């Protein structure tokens, strides 16, 4: 049995994850959810000095925004759309016949004006743009959302529906790069506080296709993305639990976001994979949270 399957089986046996029959789609126990809530609160405490504007979007976004974002150019294989029945009574009867016969019943399903959110920050940029030019000090947002990426896997850290917490900064290049550097330090402090081993390394997004290979190389060469990596599935292939991303002016140009001086705004974000951090905690501290090391329990649950 490989390492990731072994960990997944242990999580199922302990009841922390609930199997559904679909890879990467799991129920979560109350204990698992409590660990996520405690870690999420720890992020809030650490980032409270920023006075970020809190926004919470649903795990879906307008299809028009999604198409304009450029996501399909880079990650068409990960996208998820929302379809709905658009037939009449006759079509409904045919659907029920197919369902009864165990045949494909989706023929009358059509794409709606909603898609599943691929990253917590994607619904934010058009909202920033609608507000007009940024103030001189730029803007900072605190986001959290369920996200969808179509990549079924036996790795417990690679789920199809998962939660992402983000801080997103928009402003001048200097403002957003300073933000990212600050959070690269704070992120390491955060993960050290909960007793997890980690490394930080330059990384790239999983761009699709031949053009994607060039984009991966460019992203690495310009050091636009760093990841904080924790061994979860294996020591040899650690898992990205935090990411620190400098988008340059990509979203500024896409959405027409301007600085106070009329220049194209730059953006950056720090992302926290909430399920991934919870899984890392169970992997390194054990399946029984009551016997986790005292410093870790104090960081998450407070002093006894």
TrEMBL record:
GO terms for molecular function: aminoacyl-tRNA ligase activity. Keywords: Aminoacyl-tRNA synthetase, Ligase. Residues 147-293 form the Aminoacyl-transfer RNA synthetases class-II family profile domain. SUPFAM superfamilies: Class II aaRS and biotin synthetases. Gene3D superfamilies: Bira Bifunctional Protein, Domain 2. NCBIfam families: PRK07080.1 (NF005479). This is Seryl-tRNA synthetase. The lineage of its organism: Bacteria, Pseudomonadati, Pseudomonadota, Alphaproteobacteria, Hyphomicrobiales.
């Amino acid at each position: 049995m490989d390492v990731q399957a072994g960990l997944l089986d242990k999580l199922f046996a302990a009841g922390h994850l609930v199997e559904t029959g679909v890879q990467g789609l799991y129920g979560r126990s109350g204990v698992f959810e409590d660990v996520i809530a405690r870690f999420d609160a720890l992020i809030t405490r650490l980032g409270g000095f920023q006075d970020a504007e809190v926004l919470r979007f649903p795990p879906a976004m307008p299809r028009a925004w999604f198409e304009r974002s450029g996501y399909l150019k880079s990650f068409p294989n990960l996208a998820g759309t929302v379809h709905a029945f658009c037939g009449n009574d006759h079509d409904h009867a045919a659907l029920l016949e197919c369902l009864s016969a165990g045949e494909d019943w989706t023929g009358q399903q059509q794409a709606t004006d909603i898609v599943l959110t691929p990253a917590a920050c994607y619904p934010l940029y058009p909202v920033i743009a609608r507000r007009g030019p940024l103030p001189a000090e730029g803007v900072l947002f605190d986001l959290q959302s369920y996200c969808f990426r179509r990549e079924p896997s036996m790795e417990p850290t690679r789920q199809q529906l998962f939660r992402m917490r983000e801080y997103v900064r928009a402003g001048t290049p200097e403002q957003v790069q300073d933000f990212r550097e600050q959070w690269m330090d704070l992120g390491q402090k955060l993960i050290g506080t909960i007793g997890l081993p980690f490394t930080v390394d330059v990384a790239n997004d999983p761009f699709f296709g031949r053009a994607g290979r060039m984009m991966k190389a460019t992203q690495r060469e310009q050091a636009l993305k760093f990841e904080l990596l924790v061994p979860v599935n294996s020591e040899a292939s650690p898992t990205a639990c935090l990411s620190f991303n400098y988008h340059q002016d990509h979203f500024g140009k896409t959405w027409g976001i301007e600085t106070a001086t009329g220049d194209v705004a730059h953006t950056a974000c720090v992302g926290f994979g909430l399920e991934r951090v919870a899984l890392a905690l169970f992997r390194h501290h054990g399946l029984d949270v009551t016997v986790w090391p005292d410093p870790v329990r104090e960081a998450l649950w407070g002093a006894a």
